[in-house]
Amino acid sequence: MSAKILIVTGDAAESLEVLYPYQRLREEGYEVHIAAPARKTLQFVVHDFEPGFDTYTEKPGYTWPADLAFSEVDPGQYVALVIPGGRAPEYLRNDPELRKILKSFFDTDKPVAQICHGPLLTAAVDGLRGRRVTAYPALELDMQAAGATFQDAEAVVDGTLVSSRAWPDHSRWMREFLKVLRAKAPVT
Fold first, then answer.
1. What is the pTM of this model?
2. Contact at 8 Å (CB) between 28 and 58?
3. How far apart are the first and last CA of the chain?
4. How many helices and strands (H and E) does the chain possess?
5. Which of 20, 61, 126, 154 would disulfide-bridge 15, Cβ 3.0–4.6 Å?
6. pLDDT tier at 1 (50, 70, 90 boundaries)?
């Protein structure tokens, strides 16, 4: 049986930040499950930059089925966690079932990959205090308020936590995360 990795997300997650790690980790031989507030078809979004806009724009993206509801997740069955960004983390951080899942991964020092607005979730369980992270640059103050040292870099590795700014940094993010996975939770 291959090692399992959990992706936690919801509606309005950035399409690329869910589907790129999903496919890349499967390519490496991991079994990957997507968990959301409920088992349903999720509506992802595409964030991009348009001339004249001060921030990113949002358009409908891909749809994808959630394999599990957060209430069905047994964190002990998973060797690692992926936290995509987009707008989903803004409301998901309020979900008590998801906070239990996140806390379990940090309490057991399992590998966690987070990107873009995903660190809002790890901040909600005090998982960033004393750590070095990156995130979408607009979250620098949020990361500092959560007790982290923010670094504006493609990927930042702090122990088993690997963070990245956004989808343009995917290659570096997954390269660094796979190094951590191969050391802590190799495919069997």
1. 0.97
2. no
3. 7
4. 6, 11
5. 61
6. low
